[in-house]
Amino acid sequence: MLIAIGSDHAGADLKRELAAFLKDKGINLIDVGPDGSASSVDYPDYGEKVSLLVSGGQADRGVLICGTGIGMSIVANKFQGIRAALCSEPLSARLSRQHNDSNILVLGGRMIGSVMAREVLGVWLDTEFEGGRHAGRLMKITTIEEKTSQDEPRQP
């Protein structure tokens, strides 16, 4: 499995910890940055990098971390084929994989501790998609995604 991982400055420390956790599990990584938390960076830049790698098939799954996880979730879910799930405990991580086949895990670096983040990530990695009735629902999401990507932009 190949995981793309990225964060903003608020998630850089947790990203570093989770990257080490993934390497210890023998998982290959593409770390899109940033390299440290000393200077402010914009979360959309790193959310885009990871999302493009996953949506383009260069990475199997992705992990994104910002302060709350909300911004990264919004960014990632703009990309076709991305099902990003913001999770803060193991149950939502498990269900996001079983029912939604999430392919990007989003964490809030200021909202979750490193021990819980490792547990959430471990559950997310180890959980398979159930298929069945959930597959039909994902097809409906894909249909909506394809339809809206062809629509003209709406004026506010």
Characterize the structure shown.
By secondary structure, the protein is of the alpha/beta class. The protein has a single domain (2-150), classed as Sugar-phosphate isomerase, RpiB/LacA/LacB (Ribose 5-phosphate Isomerase B, Chain: A). The protein has helices at residues 12-24, 43-55, 70-76, 90-98, 114-126, 133-150, and strands spanning 2-7, 28-33, 61-66, 84-86, 104-108. The chain has a five-stranded parallel beta sheet, with helices on both faces. Strand 1, helix 1 and strand 2 (28-33) form a beta-alpha-beta unit. The longest helix has 18 residues, at 133-150. The mean pLDDT is 94.
State Rg.
Answer: 15 Å
The named CATH superfamily: Sugar-phosphate isomerase, RpiB/LacA/LacB
What is the residue-mean pLDDT, rounded to a whole number?
94
Helix content: 40-55%
| H/E element order | EHEHEHEHEHH
User: How much strand content do the residues show?
Assistant: 15-25%
Shape: globular
CATH topology: Ribose 5-phosphate Isomerase B, Chain: A
Beta strand count: 5
CATH hierarchy: architecture: 3-Layer(aba) Sandwich
Largest sheet: 5 strands, parallel
Into how many domains do the coordinates divide?
1
Strand order, sheet with most strands: 2-1-3-5-4
Number of helices: 6
The secondary structure category is alpha/beta
Low-confidence stretches at least 5 residues in length (pLDDT < 50)?
none
> Multimeric state of these chains?
single chain
* Terminal residue distance: 41 Å
Name of the top-level CATH class: Alpha Beta
Task: Give me a quick take on this structure.
This protein is α/β, with parallel strands linked by helices and 156 residues long. It contains 6 helices and 5 strands; from the N terminus they run βαβαβαβαβαα.
